TrEMBL record:
One of its GO terms (biological process) is proteolysis. Coiled coil: none annotated. This is Aminopeptidase N. It comes from Streptomyces lavendulae subsp. lavendulae. Belongs to the peptidase M1 family. The keyword Protease applies. It catalyses: Release of an N-terminal amino acid, Xaa-|-Yaa- from a peptide, amide or arylamide. Xaa is preferably Ala, but may be most amino acids including Pro (slow action). When a terminal hydrophobic residue is followed by a prolyl residue, the two may be released as an intact Xaa-Pro dipeptide. Keywords: Aminopeptidase, Hydrolase, Metal-binding, Metalloprotease, Protease, Zinc. One of its GO terms (molecular function) is metallopeptidase activity. It comes from the Bacteria. PANTHER family: AMINOPEPTIDASE N, PROTEASE M1 ZINC METALLOPROTEASE.
Amino acid sequence: MEHPALPGRTGLTRLAAPAVAALLSLAVLATGCTGATVQGRPGASGLRDPYFPRAGNGGYQVEHYDLDLAYDPADGLLHATAVITARAEQGLSSFNLDLSGLKVESVDVQGTGARYNRTGNELTVRPAKDLKKGEVFRTEIDYGGRPKPVVDPDGSKEGWIAGGDGAVAVGEPVGSMGWFPGNHHPSDKATYDITVTVPHGYEAVSNGELRSRKEVADGQTEFAWHSPEPMASYLATVAIGRFKVTTGRTPSGVPVYDAVAPGEAAGSEAALGRLPQIVDWGTEKFGPYPFGSVGSIVMPAQTLTYALETQTKPVYSGAPDEELVLHELAHQWFGDSVSPKSWKDMWLNEGFATYAEWLWSEEHGGVSAQRRFDAFLAGDTSVDPHADGDWAAFPPASPPGPEHISDDPVYYRGAMVLHRIRQEVGDPAFFGLLRGWAADHRHGNASTADFTAYAQRRTGHDLKKVWDVWLYGEDRPTAP
Ligand code: TRP
Ligand code: ZN
C-alpha cells in the first residue's frame, strides 16, 4: 500500500514567486557565509514503524490540526484546507506529510508559498526559509478531489468511505492519509479542530464536542467540532449522513452524542441505551473517563466490515450489540488515551478491550473471565462467537506481519496475558495495575516494554514467565 518515496530534493513541481525570491536571497546569504544562516536538513519520510515503516514523518511533532472540509454526497467531492501547527525537532530544509490520492492546490509555510512534490503517499514540503530547531510553524495545505479508500494489508478498507447517502472516514492503521495530510503515526498525537460543511439536510459528525452548527451561504450547514485532548490521527473521524442525533449525559455527567443512520435506529436502541452505564462502569474500573464527551456513530450496515474506536465517538457499521459498544468504549482508555507507540503494540489496544468484555460479562451475569480463559486454553472458543481464528497462532506482542495486526491472537491471547497477570498477582493488585496504567500514560503513548516494566514495578511480582510464554513465546501456551 505504501510506495517508496524519493528524497525531497528531486522533482519539486511548483515554485511560488515569493519562494523563489526567498530562496535566492538565502542562496546569496549562504554564499561564503560563516554560519549566519540556519541550515536545515530534510526531515525523515517515515518513522520506521516495524509494520508500516513509511507511516509518519520525522523532524517535527504536530501540535494541532485545523481541518476545514466541504463535502457533497451527491458528487463525492471533497474541498479542504488543512492548517497544521507543528514544532520542528531539528533544523528543517524540508519535511514530509503523508497524503494518499487527492490533488494538492497549494502549500504555504509561515504564510509564504512553499515548494512541494508528491511521490507515492509522501508529500514533501520545502519551505521558502529553513525552519529552526524548536520553531513552531504553520503549514496550510489546500487540497481536494474525490477521496479513494486505502486498502489495508489484510484487504479491509479504510480512509474516506463514501456510500449510501453520505460518507465516513476511518484511519486504522494508515487510512487517515486518504483524507487529510498529516504525520500519520500514532506516536504523534495532537489536538484537532474539524469543521465540516455539507448540504442542508445532512448532519456532519466528528470527534470531540460540537462548538457550533450554523446555516451558511448556498444552502450549506457548517459543523465545527473541537477535540481539546491529544488524539492519534488514526482515531480521527468525520461522518456525514442524514443521522438521527440524540444527546444526553451519563449518570456521572459525561455528555453523550449519538448519531445514528435512520435505518439502524431501532436496532441500535438497546445497546446505545446501555452506553451511559458502560462509560460510568469504565470509570469505576479503569479510572476517570479520559475525554470531554462520549457517543457513537452508527453508519448503515455494510458501510465497513468492522467497527472502530474513533476518539469519543466510535464508528459502527450497522447497529452494534452491547458487547461491541463495550469493546469500543474500553478503547477510549486503552488505545485512545493510552495509545500504542508503534503498530507492534496493538495488543495493548485489543487485548485490553477484549479483557474489558470479559470483565463486563463476569460482572453482569455472564461467563467469568476464568471460565473463558479455561475454555480457550482447552481449545473451546464457543464462549466467544467472534473468536473464529486460532488464538494461539502467534505471540500477541509479535504479529508475523502487518496483515496480522488485527488477527485473533492480538485480541484473545492478548486478553489471556492480562488474565495470567491477574492469576499471578490477585484481584486488588490487578485492578490497581489497570487503573495505574491508564493514569500513568493518560493522553500519551506506550510500548509493550513500557507495560511489562510497569506491571512488575506496580505489582511487585516477577512476571517474566508470563511475558516469555504468553506475550512473546512462539509455542502454544499450556495450562499454567
Ligand atoms: N480496532 C478495531 C476494533 O477493535 C478493529 C480494527 C479496524 C482494526 N481496523 C483495524 C485493527 C486495522 C487493526 C488494524 O474494533
Ligand atoms: Zn478493538
